[in-house]
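Predict structure. Chain length: 284.
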Amino acid sequence: ADVATLEAPAKIAMAREAERAALAIDPRINNSGGASFGPPLRAWQAAIAAAEEEATRLGLSEVRVAVRGVDPAQQGDPAVVALLIGNPPWARFVAPAAAGEPALLLKAGQPSLYLWTLPGDEALARRGELVWQGQMATGLPPARLYRLPPVAEIDLDITWLPQPAQFDAGLALIAYAFPPPGALTPRVTLVWQVLTPPEEARQRDLTLFNHIYDQTGARVAQADGFALLSRDWWPGDVVVQPYEIDLPAGEYRWQTGIYSRSDGGRAALLDGGDAFTLPPLLWP
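Prediction complete.
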């Protein structure tokens, strides 16, 4: 699909949402901004200008964006970013984790540029370089611009699968990480690579499921979700997706797969079945 274009209804919705958001942050009304109003327009303009300048310097056509929301057609902050940014660079909206470690959107052969306007950027600070920072509004976190190296150059402490688990939705599980010894939280990280998604991936609102079974075969926990909307899966994307689940001590079987939020149907593994089983998980 042509990433440079949006369908007409999406364009109209995005423009309307951006108009509403722009009114909410109009500097004539809200010169200083604040937690109740959101950042003033000039703060967004400064952050976008810094991101565009750094993307040009690095020769990148994408900027990862972590703001309040991921859908420019439905949510104010993404709409403002999509309206202001140059296209290229394209804004890639990444959903942060509700708690704990955030997901990361990386590339295999080139660095990634992150514009982060939320709390909880410690993972980026550990793994990347802070190249710009600017105040957004009183009571809100600053905007920070990080450069992250290619995925092969980041110490993710992951176990690579001998063979990727490829699904017919154009997504492949390539690595995973279980909690290290002494960890306080049962966090499992899955690393996915986008191959060539079919058009239906954009239409069916695909996401991930994770089912956790105990030694009796009973399902004891579930964690769904993915940091990228499936309509924004680009070939070459590598998504480092953590999940945190409360589990009592024991041995577990972790199964993961892809399903549609619109119709409930599952993607199929090219090797058969519709769920991939990781090696046994021992906790703690």
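Summary: Residues 8-151 form one domain.
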